[in-house]
Amino acid sequence: MHLVLFDIDGTLVESYDFDTECFQAAIQDVLGVTIGPDWGHYHHVTDSGILAEVIDGLGFQPDSERITAEVKERFLSRVADYISCHAVSPIPGAQAFLSQLMERKNVAVAFATGGWSESAKMKLDAAGLTFSSVPLASSSDHYSRTEIMRLAERRAGKSPYDSMTYFGDGPWDQKASEALGYNFVSVGDRIASPKSVRDFTDVDMALGYIGL
What we know:
This protein is an alpha/beta fold. The protein has helices at 16-31, 47-57, 64-85, 94-103, 117-126, 145-156, 171-180, 203-210; strands spanning 2-6, 107-112, 136-137, 163-168, 183-187, 196-197.
């Protein structure tokens, strides 16, 4: 049995840029501060992880629960507004590749995203990637990407696995995969890795990286 996990923003959905902008704007709305788009200097590159670090850095920790709820509400509203006015595209080949994997009896598929679950589902639906039967673990579950991936692994529910592969597009995806001993495949051109696909149109290459 092969476990295949997928990040969402920039990996399955062309949403990395607008998601980043909506997140920055939501923090500006609530806290009145501007944060840069380079997530690499944050310890946990997830919505809840980044926000917790921003709150802590500002000394607002005692009020973190209220602030988190307000930022999340503003963020979800901004994402919904963006989706209502713009087409959201899947990464080329993602729909067919996911469908093919789900048809295989020796493959378990799950989503493991650093975004909150509500926004993840909005973006997947907007891109036409409505796979309601696929388990999802997200920043709503934990601030740590490795813990999110572990949870997605458990929710896939078909262990033990002969292999575990994570498709992602960021250096934090690669780092988490290495920490967990997962086979990592980068998607797109944001990072370089030994195993890389531009998108999912070359199905044979993507399957080969999984070991199928």
